[in-house]
Amino acid sequence: MSGAGFRSRSSAAVSLLVPLALVAIVTLVGASGTPSFQGTVTLILCNLIVVLGLQVFVGNSGVYSFGQLGFATAGAYITALLTLPPAFALLQTPGLPPLIADAQLGPLLATLIAAAIAGLLAVVVGLPLMRTSTLAIPISTFAFLVVVYNVAANWDRVTGGSSGLVSIPTTTSVESAGLWAAAAVVLAIAFKWSASGYRLQATREDEVAARSIGIGVMRERLIAFGISGVLCGIGGALAVHQSGVLNPTTFYFGATVTTLTMLVVGGARSVLGAVVGAIAIATVNEMLRGLENGADLFGAVSVGPAPGLAAIGLGLILLATMIAMPHGLSGGREAGELPWIRRLGLPATALPPGTSGVVAGRTTGDPVEKGVLRAEGITLAFSGLRVLRDLDLELAPGEALGLIGPNGAGKTTLVNVLSGFQAPDSGAVTLDGVDVTGRTPTRLARDGLGRTFQASLPFPHLTALESVAVGAMGIGVGRRRAATVAADVLSRLNLLGQAALPAGSLTPAGQRLLGVARALATHPRYLLLDEPAAGLNEVECGELVQILRDVIEDFGCGILLIEHEMSIVMELCPRIQVLDDGATLCEGTPEEVQADPAVVEAYLGSAFLAAADA
Amino acid sequence: MGMMNFAHGEFIMLAAYALYVFAGLPFPAAVASALLTGIAIALLAERVAFRPVRSADLSTQLVTSLAVAAILQNVVMVAVDARGQSVATPASLSESTTIGGISVPNLEFVTLGLTAIVLAGLGWLLYRTRTGLAMRAAAENFDMARLLGVRADRVIAISFAISGALAAAVGVLIVMQTGQVTPTMGLTPVLIGFVAVVIGGFGRMFGAVIGGLLLGALSSLLGAYLPDGLAPFRDAIVFTFPVLILIFRPHGLLGGEIGKARV
Predict the structure, then answer these.
(1) Which segment of A46-60, A421-435, B128-142 scores lowest on mean pLDDT?
(2) I need a labelling partner for A560 at 20 to 30 A (CA). Which of A122, A326, A461, B83 fits?
(3) Nearest-CA neighbor of A153 among B181, B218, B225, B235?
């Protein structure tokens, strides 16, 4: 890998090879067993593919879906109908169009078709569902699962109804299931490490921050939902070619709980977790099933047959994991990121020594400097409370404007309006003369408007380098170039030493700077900083002033600085606008503002002035 | 409380099973035992499963409730049977009363009356009492409510107890209507409830009521007017309906705040 990389070549190789090795071991162990053991292992591998499908969506988006097994059902029925010998098809599914009934495709072709249709179905279903909130998606996907079940159970003439289909060709062997599972592992890791995968992970870490760097939450979720549908479809199709029978409950509520348990117990955020969880839970499940049929424990305790025991066991494991180990066995890490693997001496990232020499921003003299960000007559009320009253503001590239005022003056709300997080009741925001009022934060970020947040809003489980790079990916920069841009920005902000650390482990000051770096990586022409110095000590404040000065010079962007630390504002901003009670109190140079009695009154209150006069 | 509970369906189911187990008792006593079972199981689940994950994100709580649901469902399967059991219902409920020439089953009156009482009671509790205020405060901002002296553990336990009692009421009504209990009987009502909430918008009691009425009306209309060939797909169509609403109103008809990201 040339230039900057998110992980060293050895770390990436370990992350990929360990789950592949686990799949290979399971396959080889399975292949050496009795035919019935081979069948069991084959089904476990099919389950693993479904769990990987879950991981692609749930793990990367942090949004639970209870409907992915619906795509497994779809894939299973499609491949079953395509491969059923015509004689059987005539008997079981008299309502099938002759074209499909007479078709008897090879299992590979049928599986591929099933995967494609399952993926297509996922995109069609996902289009409306991904628009809803993080909390509504689990429920509406669950409703989808019920819909699929109902169709499968009642469309008797095509699906065989609740009694299902039999005599489906059993062509899936342990070896072929193992190969498919290995391919699924590679696909899941490739997606996670792709630009789209990183953007989706950013929405999982913090949806608001993700939108502020140009990430379209719905779009990224939909892409993963589609890929997940494909993998689940493959898993379902392969499984049905192992067992030879299929009915509507094969991939219904029970299978949903089982596969979710596998994902959660292993650790949803990582592909390694999906693989480890699937294997571990399958093993436990088989042992519990043995108990269900009645067994003697150590010859002492005799347990009678108790169907349902395995499901209780799985439920208890899931419950215990959620309470005691919410990140799962893998801790949400890939193999190359595990602490004890790290200790072997693998370099974490492939960072270039020092700066890469790539200038992330625009150089001075860029024609872009001619534009202006302007807010005119912005008025906003929250259920009757007037927060902004007829506010005007103007910011040019290369300029630093201080925005100060007492708490509750409306500074942050104004930034929210400018960056599209809050629509004004009246008034307009224009960007270089174009009216952008009502544009989404995502769109505005791509238009060149960057911002930070009072609460930093880091992406805790991404490394510092990834957190910043995802800013560049948000506006459409490719993965490799984004890494280079991120390394460059980090080095300018003296954060390169922490590039490989998870963003959540940085100090509050470090996270605040990281927020600035993340916004800078989106190539903003206008950068809105909401109290970047809060929580910083004196030395760090001094560094911040120097950094921001360099940013204006190197990147040529205009900075709007909200800050309570007056020394920073006075030092950095030649022009200051003072807000009070939602309106502009005054505007001018630091000296003019400091001398204005109205400003002193707003900050300290008239009583204080009266007391000082007396 | 800003959380969705998959296990609510199993609270319904267990209360219904109490009715089955205590079928030998006089009917009012059996109903009382179902009520107590609903409350007890809800409190137990809160203490054992939900309290430990209270500070976790909503997804974690949702999956936790799924685990509780799976456990309870399968415990009943092991302890009783995976198949349904029939429960005798009082004869007076299965008779009908004729009003203005229309014969209405007595059970419908009980259902209607109970629903009205529950809605009124819940509205009164939430919006007219100190406990209700504390519950809404805890739902709005748990930590802040706690800092202000709201006894959070108690408030949450109370809200679970109430939901357990409501679940029991639903369980009893279902048994009265169908005359039987099955381990999976809680799935459909809880899904209808969830979907109603999604349609109505999170955190709005009124929204959930509207969503529920819409679903019910749609289900009845489809039952009456769907051509024979499509009749088996009624449930599929009913559950597709929320998707159509979500296309136009991604945050529900009333658009609640819970679930929306805050800046």
Answers:
(1) B128-142
(2) A461
(3) B235
A contacts of B242 (beta carbons < 8 Å)? 140, 143
Of A283, A313, A339, the one marking the end of a domain is: A283
CATH of the domain at A156: 1.10.3470
Determine whether the interchain pair B252/A136 forms a contact, defined as Cβ–Cβ distance below 8 Å: yes
Contacts of A421 in chain B (CB under 8 A): 263
**Distance from the A139 Cα atom to the nearest Cα atom in chain B, whole angstroms:** 7
Chain B contact present for A135, CB below 8 A: yes
> What string of H, E and C letters represents the secondary structure of chain B?
CCCCCCCHHHHHHHHHHHHHHCCCCCHHHHHHHHHHHHHHHHHHHHHHHHHHHCCCCHHHHHHHHHHHHHHHHHHHHHHCCCCCEECCCCHHHHCEEEECCEEEEHHHHHHHHHHHHHHHHHHHHHHHCHHHHHHHHHHHCHHHHHHCCCCHHHHHHHHHHHHHHHHHHHHHHHHHHHCEECCCCCHHHHHHHHHHHHHHCCCCHHHHHHHHHHHHHHHHHHHHHCCHHHHHHHHHHHHHHHHHHHHHCCCCCCCCCCCCCCC
The beta-carbon neighbor of A308 closest among B74, B202, B240 is B74
Residue A172 and residue A53 share a domain: yes
pTM metric for this prediction: 0.89
Q: How far apart are the C-alpha atoms of A541 and A520, rounded to whole Å?
A: 19
**Residue A299 domain-assigned?**
no
- In this predicted structure, the answer to whether residue A301 has a pLDDT above a threshold of 60 is no
ipTM of the complex: 0.83
Nearest to B254 by CA among B202, B212, B219, B191: B202
